[in-house]
Amino acid sequence: MSDAYRISPNFAGALPTLNDPVLVIMLSGWIDTSNAAATAMEALVSETGATTLIEFDADTFIDYRARRPIMELRAGVNTTIDWSLPKMLLGRDESDRDVLLLSGPEPDTRWQHFAATVAALADQLKVKSAYGLGAYPVATPHTRAVYISCTTPSTEAAARVPFLKSTLDVPAGVEAVLEHALHTRGITAIGLWAQVPHYVASMAYPAASVALIDALCSTSGLAIDVSSLREQSTTQRERLNGLVMANAEHAAMLAKLEEAFDAQHTASDPAATGIGGISLPSGEEIAAELEQFLRE
Question: CA 14: distance to chain centroid?
Fold first, then answer.
């Protein structure tokens, strides 16, 4: 037991013995274009039947003035306060393998303490691998497969997985801090990031959620049914095709994106970036029209 968290009474206040558990991380508040990672996490919670195992202490990790709790007011009666806090859920995949899901808001404070606490819990629960989920916008066409890039402190893990690897300096989310804390404990930690077409960045994009779960399953060995999300992805792609083809400028933009994508991903360096100076309509302009179309 720790002041930083409490174990759910449903588990009699004790950590259970698990079957080859995998930890999946998606904490809201950092980059998640189209809410692709959040949607993937929602699907994982639903498909695994996950319930709360651990609640992290809100007083320790949350700044209430930046993230105020919600008061439930009914006919003037303050019935309850809903505290937004990180949680670790426990579910099982289709093969009865245990899945730990770290979800909720990204902590506002004490990131290193939070990461060390999560890593210690993962160690106690015999977790061998952990995967973060995220998504970011890229000048890429919706008519091609969603590519996944990865982050990891382990050179061995980076060499083993078939995802894009980049070289750059960027601001970090707490998931990156968790990667290092888990790695220090001998737990393989990999961040999975879906590349979302920039022009659909302000709307849901289930294809990216499917790609994240597929990447998770292929890497971890988990068995998760994503048929519902896959159907949503197919439907959205067909509607996007119809809209883009109805506008000559957008059709030309898509053709250039496809050409650049095909050239980039057949090059010797699959992690290369850039689209060759193509002049594109802004993501805001295209997104506005797409949103209007999808509301019809």
Answer: 28
Radius of gyration of the chain (CA): 20
Report yes or no on 289 lying in a domain.
no
At position 249, the amino acid (one-letter code) is E
pTM, rounded to two decimals: 0.87
Terminal CA-to-CA distance of the chain, rounded, Å? 52
Number of domains in the chain: 1
Cβ contact 211:194 at 8 Å: yes
**Mean pLDDT by groups of 10 residues along the chain of 296 residues:** 88 94 96 96 98 96 92 96 95 98 97 98 98 93 91 95 86 95 98 93 93 97 96 91 84 86 65 38 49 50
Q: What CATH number did the domain enclosing 182 receive?
A: 3.40.50.10900
CA angle 219, 50, 120 (to 5 degrees): 65
Residue 271 near residue 166, CB atoms below 8 Å: yes
**Residue 150's pLDDT is what?**
95
Please say whether the dihedral angle defined by the alpha carbons of residues 162, 122, 175 and 214, taken in this order, is positive or negative. positive
Q: Please give the Cα distance from 21 to 128 (Å, whole number).
A: 7
Domain assignment present for 284: no
Q: Give the type of residue at 16.
A: P
